[in-house]
Each structure stands twice: as structure tokens, then as C-alpha cells.
Design goal:
- This protein has helices at residues 27-37, 59-62, 68-81, 103-122, 156-166, 184-190, 236-254, 280-297, 312-326, 344-358, and strands at residues 6-11, 49-51, 84-88, 96-99, 131-136, 173-177, 196-203, 225-230, 258-263, 302-306.
- By secondary structure, it is α/β, with parallel strands linked by helices.
- It has a single domain, classed as 3-Layer(aba) Sandwich (Arginase, Chain A).
Length: 360
């Protein structure tokens, strides 16, 4: 429906699966079941929401950020070697980057569905576009120009950013990454590019070990990479403080034509991998703030792309709260008043350093 507030695409990639792995095929069904339960679907709210049919990305769209050799290697490995491991970063095997027979095609559907969400947002009114959400896997923000990494085969958000520029002729793209892990692949791809503002809120001193405050871009891109390494235990208040002190002023200064979000939900307090303590309500607050920011700066153009999230409950609640925000609804969950105290002083010290470095 043309007047929908939210256009969303889904690429569940059911064949891209490895038993016992964190990044498994059960992730998307958990999200879809929760969306249906909360009546956050196009079927339940046809006036507010539109589900997109899905499409695959072309080789040319992938090669806007990846080398042709990387694309060819991924295709060959799926055809000839799968099931196989294509990148290790840690034992045990549930921390590998794997490929099944369908993984190459599944990754094309994930990237293509992200671009489809961009198209839906760009087709909206210049005055106020619908928001977009790509519920996709495998994730993408660790994949580099030449290599798969960290459960990621192709870098969906980077492909979307270049697509915004090359297909839709937008000059300036902002990417916010709030996954618990640093989006090293995205950073590398745009590190010398002043047309893309990359802001990453992640847990400090966890895998992949990148994303320190002094990683701020190089050459023409100096200053357009902003890293916010959050201390262990940072929760709801820390996330909102980082948005207010860093994300918003940096965005206002940059004045993007569209905002893309690497929306990882593994900073949720229930997630098994790391130790940030975001609440389900944190995601409603962050996404609501980003909506207002997009309305103010770039005609409402905002697209979220799913990244991590490995507690099915935390993942599904986070996505549902994001959908609720994107359609103008109230939070589905309250902030837990009994949650552990946040490391307020440590958070303030990090934010102070980022603000000083970037003159925010």
C-alpha cells in the first residue's frame, strides 16, 4: 500500500543453517512468530505496513563493495565445497562462518531484500518517506571487500549504501551500527570515504577487537568514522546518552540524505555472547529517536537491516519494539527497574573522549 508507514522485506534463508550454531535458521521464524503474535504484520495492519515480495541482488550490486574474486569464491564454495567453514575466529564450531549448499543464493536474497527496502523508502513522498526494515540473514557487517567474516558472507549495509548513491543518486549516506560487535567490515569499506558517515556503538574489547575511539577515518574520510566503545554493563540509559551526545549531533552536522542502520539485537541483556544490558524498550527508544532524526534531516528516509541477535527472546522482542516504533506505537516492554546498575562514570568518560575527538 502506497501510504504505508513501514515497508519490510523478509529473507529467512532457511537453507543457510548449521545445527547448534548461534546464527541459525531459527532466528527469523522466532521474529516472525513474535511479529504475528503482536499483530505487527501487513496482514494485521494493512493501513500501516506493507510486506515486500523480496528479490536477489545482482553481481554488479555486490561488486559495488566486494571484489569480483570474493563473489566468485563464495559462489564456488557453495556449489563445490558446502557444507563447509569459510572463516574461523574462535573455537568451538558455533563461532565459525559457514556455508551450506544454499548459502550463496540465500545471501543474494538477503542483500537484495535490503535493496528492495531502500527502493520502497525512496519511492515514498519527498516530504516524508515510509520507513524500511529488512528482516534478513545471513548478517553482513563483518564481511570485508575480500573476505567473509563473523557469520557474514556479504556486507548488506555497505551494499545498500552504495546502491543509495549509484541507483538513487544520493550524495551522503549515514550508517549507524548498534550491534554489540563492531562493524569492522563496514568501517574498512568506507574508512577513506567522506560521503558515508559511519557511527558504531558496540561493546568495548570484544571480538573482533576493532572499533577503538581513535579509529576515526583516513584521508578524505578523516572524521567520518565515529566509534563509541561502550563499557561492559552499559544498558538503556547509556545507549540513549550515546545517541543524544554523539549520534544526533554528528548526524545533524553531516546532514545525510538517508540513514541506514545495522540493527543488531545482541546488545540485549538476554543475549548469550557479550555483556551489554540493553532492554527490549531500548530498541523502541533508539528507533523512535532515529525516526525523528530522519524526519528532520532527510525526508524521513530510514532503513534498518537485521544483523546479530542470538537470544530468540531478546531478538524477537527487540525487533517487535523496533516495528512498534516504526509504526508509531508505544513500547511493548518497560525498562526493568531491577536491572543491574550501569557503569555511569565509565560511560561518561568514553562519551567525553568521543565528543572531544570529533568536536561534537
Amino acid at each position: 500500500m502506497a501510504g504505508a508507514q513501514l515497508a519490510y522485506s523478509v529473507a529467512p534463508s532457511a537453507g543457510h543453517d548449521l545445527a547448534g550454531h548461534y546464527e541459525c535458521a531459527k532466528r527469523i521464524p522466532a521474529i516472525l512468530e513474535a511479529l504475528q503474535h503482536n499483530k505487527l504484520t501487513a496482514e494485521s495492519q494493512p493501513q500501516k505496513m506493507r510486506k515486500l515480495p523480496g528479490r536477489v541482488a545482482s553481481s554488479a550490486e555486490l561488486e559495488a563493495v566486494h571484489s569480483s574474486a570474493h563473489v566468485a569464491t563464495m559462489k564456488r564454495k557453495a556449489a563445490e565445497d558446502a557444507p563447509c567453514v569459510v572463516a574461523d575466529f574462535e573455537e568451538p564450531p558455533d563461532n565459525t562462518t559457514y556455508m551450506a549448499k544454499s548459502s550463496f543464493d540465500d545471501a543474494l536474497h538477503a542483500a537484495g531484500s535490503a535493496l528492495e527496502a531502500v527502493d520502497a523508502v525512496m519511492e515514498g513522498s519527498d516530504a516524508k518517506a515510509p520507513k524500511g526494515f529488512a528482516v534478513i540473514r545471513p548478517p553482513g557487517h563483518h564481511a570485508t571487500r575480500e573476505s567473509p567474516m563473523g557469520f557474514c558472507l556479504f556486507n548488506n549495509v555497505a551494499i545498500a549504501a552504495r546502491y543509495c548513491q549509484e541507483r538513487h543518486h544520493l550524495k551522503k549516506v549515514m550508517i549507524l551500527d548498534f550491534d554489540v560487535h563492531h562493524g569492522n567490515g563496514t568501517q574498512d569499506l568506507f574508512y577513506e570515504d567522506d560521503s558515508v558517515l559511519f557511527i558504531d556503538m558496540h561493546q568495548n574489547e570484544v571480538w573482533p577487537g576493532t572499533g577503538q575511539i581513535n579509529e576515526a577515518g583516513r584521508g578524505k574520510g578523516e572524521g567520518t568514522t565515529i566509534n563509541v566503545p561502550m563499557p561492559v554493563g552499559s544498558g538503556h540509559e547509556a545507549a540513549l546518552k550515546a545517541y543524544q551526545r554523539i549520534v544526533r549531533p554528528a548526524a545533524v552536522r553531516f546532514a545525510p540524505d538517508i540513514i541506514l542502520v545495522s540493527a543488531g539485537y545482541d546488545a540485549h541483556r538476554l543475549d548469550p555472547l557479550e555483556k551489554l544490558n540493553y532492554e527490549s524498550a531500548t530498541y523502541h527508544a533508539l528507533v523512535s529517536s532515529l525516526m525523528s532524526l530522519a524526519d528532520e534531516l532527510c525526508g524521513g528516509r530510514l532503513v534498518l537491516l537485521l544483523e546479530g541477535g542470538y537470544s530468540f527472546q531478546g531478538l524477537s522482542e527487540g525487533v517487535c519494539n523496533s516495528f512498534q516504533a516504526l509504526t508509531g506505537g508505544q513500547p511493548l516492554h518497560e525498562v526493568d527497574s531491577s536491572a543491574d546498575a550501569e557503569p555511569g562514570r565509565a560511560v561518561d568518560e568514553v562519551l567525553d573522549e568521543v565528543v572531544a575527538l570529533h568536536d561534537l
